[in-house]
Amino acid sequence: MKNPKPIRILVVDDHFMVRMGLSASLNAERDMQVVAEAGGAEAATGAYRDHHPDLVLMDVRLPGVSGIEAAKSILSEFPGARILMLSTHASEEEIYQALQVGACGYLLKSVVREELLRAIRMVAAGEHYLDSSVAGILASRVAHRPLTGRELEVLRMVAKGFGNKEIAAALDIAEVTVKLHVSHVLEKLNARDRTEAATAALKRGIIAPE
């Protein structure tokens, strides 16, 4: 009986030792074959064009253009691409954005090898995969109403220490409108005050540290 064709994998990570370790581990499986590696977003897109792998194992945080943007670029050109995101960090916003652009799964690099292999096989077979901690974070995100674009602008300025009057002047809106936005931000983030809201937003990846 002939062995089934192996799952052809593109490994994308900016750290050479990580790529080498992942590739060696995956190539040890009879049903997997790493056909290409890439250290950045542009190289990842080029490698996909050249090799048309069955699955891309994509690091979320790449230098310059992020892994999420790289996934978006690949999927815009190859809508059928199967992309499994891999990250050291469990950022709520990154998880949400990755799934929004069309990634088929999201794993933390802390998962055990058996779970990584299971996720690869499931995603390659057309399914989606989230590890339990990622699923919990995403469930928390879904349970809360998302911030509007204006609320995000206000939140970023709150995190920088701007007062209501300064925010109103910078955004050319009334101070009472700023107060309304701030109250909505506090409610949506379940925060008691501006400092707690800023801290929660930074921790969850909703806003980036300056």
Describe the structure.
The protein is an alpha/beta fold and 210 residues long. The protein has two domains: 7-142, Response regulator (Rossmann fold, 3-Layer(aba) Sandwich), CATH 3.40.50; 149-204, Orthogonal Bundle (Arc Repressor Mutant, subunit A). The protein is 53% helix and 14% strand. It is elongated.
* Structural class designation: alpha/beta
Series of secondary-structure elements, N-terminal to C-terminal: EHEHEHEHEHEHHHHH
Total number of beta strands: 6
Rg, alpha carbons? 20 Å
* Strand residue content: 5-15%
Distance between the termini: 58 Å
Indicate the mean pLDDT.
Answer: 89
Per DSSP, the total helix count is 10
* CATH class division of the largest domain: Alpha Beta
Instruction: Give the biggest sheet.
Output: 6 strands, parallel
The CATH architecture assignment of the largest domain turns out to be 3-Layer(aba) Sandwich
Task: Going across the biggest sheet, name each strand in turn.
Answer: 2-1-3-4-5-6
Query: Low-confidence stretches at least 5 residues in length (pLDDT < 50)?
Result: none
The global form is: elongated
